[in-house]
């Protein structure tokens, strides 16, 4: 039985939103709704226009017999600015300051609504890149990486400081912590990453950049390719960071028992590149 257009539009929209960066063919939808391909094509045009108008993302249509469409989540500069400003307001309270110039963020980074917004921001930066996997280390960066992976439609990989027996054989690297100058170790299962994999590194907080540098070294050991590095917050740091060209959503100075939070370089990098 044929499905009404209004019902098709709702279901098709949900289907695309749940499967970003995944090609869905006209034939699939035609069979799903017992409708002509021409009708499905018209439905896609409506969804495409609405996504663009509302800043939800791009619905890219692919012509041909096996053609279809895929949804690419993006965000407009105005909405991105509003999200970042809201994060600044929520984090700008004195009781969040931790020893060593760190900031308490666990409550925000466990809030599913916040994580969706952060994941969408980061994924939008790499919407036009071919990303095969997200990499993070076993800290509060895990839920961020998972959210980004969801929006890019790729798996995420967790680097550990101590391997577990369930990981099997691992490859490890030693790295120097940028903030404490201590030598540490991180490792990753040999089965986690194949040579040539294009990897996006995501983490929650950066000071000296030692942890990020260690993940870059692991990517090199696996003969994979680093696509980019993005952190939720960049902390104040005196001296030379061990890594550059990092995108940050927030810039945090929590020294001297005061908090000063400003937008990171995300807005400048992402929207200047797109203009």
TrEMBL record:
**SUPFAM superfamilies listed in its UniProt record:** PRTase-like, Winged helix' DNA-binding domain
Q: Which UniProt keywords apply?
A: DNA-binding, Transcription, Transcription regulation
Tell me which InterPro entries the record gives.
PRTase-like (IPR029057), PRTase_dom (IPR000836), Pur/Pyrimidine_PRTase (IPR050118), PuR_N (IPR015265), PurR_Bsub (IPR010078), WH-like_DNA-bd_sf (IPR036388), WH_DNA-bd_sf (IPR036390)
Outline the extent of the Phosphoribosyltransferase domain.
107-263
Q: Does the keyword Secreted apply?
A: no
Q: Which residues does UniProt call coiled coil?
A: none
Q: Where are the transmembrane segments?
A: none
All copies of domain Bacterial purine repressor N-terminal, residue ranges: 4-73
* Subunit comment: Homodimer.
Q: Which family does it belong to?
A: Belongs to the purine/pyrimidine phosphoribosyltransferase family. PurR subfamily.
PANTHER family from the entry? HYPOXANTHINE/GUANINE PHOSPHORIBOSYLTRANSFERASE, PUR OPERON REPRESSOR
What is the protein name stated in its UniProt record? Pur operon repressor
Q: Which organism is it from?
A: Pediococcus inopinatus
Q: What is the lineage of its organism?
A: Bacteria, Bacillati, Bacillota, Bacilli, Lactobacillales
Q: Name the gene behind this protein.
A: purR
